[in-house]
Amino acid sequence: MCSDGAGGCSLTTRGPDWGGVMPPNESFLAKAPKELALEPDLPIIDTHLHLWQLFPGQPYLWREHAADVEVSGRNVTHRRATD
């Protein structure tokens, strides 16, 4: 049930009852220890990823995904192994 009580919800009023999707808590995420790549040169073929724009001002599109891959220390590619 939406918190506005009128039967319609905007993305900003939806809470945990809407699939458990909440905006990222950046201060919480900043506390996580950095995970080092065990084999940074080993290619990882990412054949399935999720891009979304659920919350105003907080998209997770190709640019955000690429930034995450850049800082991960992993060799992630989105090409098929036969390319």
Structure explained in plain terms:
By secondary structure, the protein is α+β, with helices and mostly antiparallel strands. It has a domain of 52 residues. It is 19% helix and 16% strand. The protein is built from 2 helices and 4 strands, in the order αβββαβ. The strands form 2 sheets. The protein has a two-stranded parallel ribbon. A hairpin with a 2-residue loop joins β2 and β3. It is globular. The N terminus is likely disordered.
Provide a short characterization of the protein structure.
The protein contains two helices and four strands. By secondary structure, the protein is of the alpha+beta class. The chain has a domain at 26-77.
Task: Give the SSE map.
Layout lengths: L25 H5 L12 E3 L6 E4 L2 E3 L1 H11 L2 E3 L6
Parallel strand pairs: 1-4
Antiparallel strand pairs: 2-3
Keywords:
83 residues; alpha+beta; two-stranded parallel ribbon; 16% strand
- Unreliable stretches (pLDDT < 50, length at least 5) are 1-11
Order of helices and strands: HEEEHE
Counting DSSP E segments of at least 2 residues, the number of strands comes to 4
Sheet/helix structural class:
alpha+beta
Sheet with the most strands, sense and barrel status: 2 strands, parallel
Average pLDDT metric? 74
Overall, the morphology is globular
Beta-strand residue percentage: 15-25%
Q: Specify the helix fraction band.
A: 10-25%
